[in-house]
Design goal:
Elements lengths: L2 E6 L4 H7 L5 E5 L9 H15 L7 E5 L8 H8 L6 E4 L5 H17 L8 E5 L4 H5 L11 E5 L3 H7 L13 H17 L3 E3 L8 H14 L3 E4 L5 H7 L4 H16 L5 E4 L2 E4 H16 L1
Parallel strand pairs: 1-2, 1-8, 2-3, 3-4, 4-5, 5-6, 6-7, 7-8
Antiparallel strand pairs: 9-10
């Protein structure tokens, strides 16, 4: 997935705009975008949207961000939305593999209750929203077959740290959040799942968004989460490999295939080793998945 778009669970017409945005996935949000006094009421429109959109042709993937496991709201959220057969749950404030395993158990019980195949609902974990979570970033590997990716966030973390800002005057991440970003990227690699970059909140700053997407893709993130439909085109553009990149990857894969067992190959006067082959294979796999 290249692009994932947040839409409030009580979104109304925002659901229509989200469906038309071109995002690869929509994240129906029961957490931060819903005020505490409206959370219970937001579950019904979330379910209705899942049921309606789930049958649409060529639809985006449908995720739901539930409230955190320690809020006392997560069970009611899951009871309400699992009948809508979401493709995945975005778990906020995840604190290591134990929290993913906890959610896995909750989903297994509800899938059985509603006649869904076990494991049909995946998990995307939001890994850096608490200070504790940073110290548990390396514990996601092998905890659940449902785990489809990791992402990170800075807003809740900055509040917990008592920080006055999380970016500098030029819009660049400050050190604590650069650390969180790097930990998410490393945690995803260790767990062998994709890493998805966090939101860019200055949604009218197209140049800043594109720069941040380019930096994220360079560093190994495979996509980015959006907060506004207007951000989707730039995200999709940056995270979609171009014809030259695809052709280069095919050439690298073919060169290694022609020399089985070779540690390096030469192409047009440049040497490529096994890490280059791995990157080329991943790029071609992402193109194949669409």
């Amino acid at each position: 997935m290249r692009s994932l778009l947040f839409v409030p669970a009580d979104g109304g017409k925002k659901f229509d705009k989200a469906m038309a945005s071109g995002a690869d996935a929509l994240i129906v949000d029961l957490e931060d975008s819903i005020a505490p006094e409206r959370k219970a009421a937001a579950r019904a429109p979330a379910l209705a949207f899942l049921q309606e959109a789930g049958g649409a042709k060529d639809r985006p993937r449908l995720f739901v961000r539930i409230n955190g496991l320690d809020t006392g709201l997560a069970d009611a959220d899951l009871d309400a939305i699992v009948p809508g057969k979401p493709d995945a749950i975005l778990l906020p404030k995840a604190e290591g593999g134990a929290s993913v395993a906890h959610l896995d158990a909750k989903l297994t019980a509800r899938e059985a209750l509603h006649g869904l195949a076990e494991g049909s609902i995946a998990i995307l974990a939001l890994t850096t929203e608490t200070a504790k979570a940073l110290f548990l970033a390396g514990s996601y590997g092998g905890v659940s077959k449902r785990l489809m990716g990791l992402t990170w966030g800075a807003e809740d973390l900055s509040a917990e740290l008592g920080a006055e800002a999380n970016r500098d005057g030029q819009g660049q991440w400050l050190d604590p959040y650069r650390l969180a970003r790097s930990l998410c990227l490393a945690a995803a690699a260790a767990a062998q799942v994709p890493a998805l970059d966090t939101v860019y909140v200055d949604y009218r700053n197209d140049a800043g968004l594109r720069r941040e997407c380019e930096d994220a893709r360079r560093d190994g993130f495979t996509g980015k989460i959006a907060i506004h439909p207007g951000q989707i085109a730039a995200i999709n553009d940056v995270f979609t490999p171009g014809p030259q990149e695809i052709a280069r990857a095919e050439t690298i894969v073919a060169a290694f295939a022609a020399q089985p067992g070779a540690g390096t190959v030469g192409i047009d006067g440049k040497m490529y080793d096994r890490p280059h082959l791995v990157r080329a294979q991943r790029l071609l796999e992402s193109v194949k998945r669409g």
